[in-house]
Amino acid sequence: MNRLLSEKIAFFLLRAAGFVVILPVVIVVYLLVSRGYSAISWDFFTQMPRDGMTKGGILSPIVGTLYLMGTTTAIALPLGILSAVYISEYARPGLLLRLIRLAIVNLAGVPSIVYGLFGYGVFVLLLIKVECILAGALTLAIMTLPVIIVATEEALNSVPQGFREASLALGATRWQTVRKVVLPSALPGIITGGILGISRAAGETAPILFTVAAFYMPRLPDSVFDKAMALPYHLFIMSTQVPNAPLRVQWGTALTLLLIVLGMNLVASVIRGYYRRKRTW
């Protein structure tokens, strides 16, 4: 009887913990949808901000965010995957591997504002010499690397060791085994981890504050060496620096950012499910 009571209490606490985690998310989504849906329209997505950003749409911040995410993905994803392949498949246990893992853990714990200051000092002042999309993307790429590396390493480690042994026994080299056996088998986890890491970067304000974000641009960026408006920074500006900004525009901007992040997570889930269904093991 005591054992049954303990089990019921444990299940109740687990359900309560799950409810406590889910409830704030539900409240946030409800507030954004209920207060921001009135601003959502075709013109809101396709018009430039005007009249001190109190009228018009958010085309510039949307395009700037997509530019940033695309460039960040092109930089962070290959570097993160190659780093995870080295750690999982090539690195020997020892001091060097421990130092690499320590560096990854430290990178994951660094506040985003520190990444912004680092990107400003290294990319804006030292290397590129100008605030631009490339400087912001490099900063975001460094910030997302720990997520991508950890997720990719876990995906690689989930591939049965027998796959590697069978490939090597048939005469394949280690790189051929990694490229044609291990990586395709781990692809669902790699893609999911990559998209989740990039989607986290999509909502960051501090790293782009010093490296790329423009207060107002009446045009779209022409290249990665231009400054750009971005949804997180635009939302911050609308909420703190534009006193006459309509509340529905602020909530609509926040809802748009949420939809982009949720859309990226949904894409990750769909891709993961597709490749998992194709597995034969």
Number of domains: 1
Shape: globular
Strand adjacency order, main sheet: 1-2
- CATH superfamily, by name, is MetI-like
Annotated CATH topology:
MetI-like fold
Count every helix, treating DSSP H or I runs of 4 or more residues as helices. 11
| CATH architecture level-2 label | Orthogonal Bundle
Strand % is under 5%
Structural class assignment: mainly alpha
| Low-pLDDT stretches | none
Detail the topology: elements first, then pairings.
Blueprint lengths: L1 H35 L5 H5 L2 E2 L4 E2 L2 H32 L4 H15 L2 H16 L5 H25 L3 H9 L4 H29 L3 H4 L21 H10 L6 H31 L4
Antiparallel strand pairs: 1-2
Helix pairs in contact: 1-11, 3-6, 3-8, 4-6, 5-6, 6-8, 7-8, 8-11, 10-11
Describe this structure in words.
- There is one protein chain.
- The chain is mainly α and 281 residues long.
- The protein has one domain (60-277): MetI-like (MetI-like fold).
- Helices cover 75% and strands 1% of the residues.
- It has eleven helices and two strands.
- The chain has helices at residues 2-36, 42-46, 59-90, 95-109, 112-127, 133-157, 161-169, 174-202, 206-209, 231-240, 247-277; strands at residues 49-50, 55-56.
- The protein has a two-stranded antiparallel ribbon.
- Helix 4 (95-109) packs across helix 6 (133-157) and helix 6 crosses helix 8.
- The longest helix is centred in the first third of the chain and has 35 residues, at 2-36.
- The radius of gyration is 22 Å and the shape is globular.
- The two termini are 42 Å apart.
- The mean pLDDT is 84.
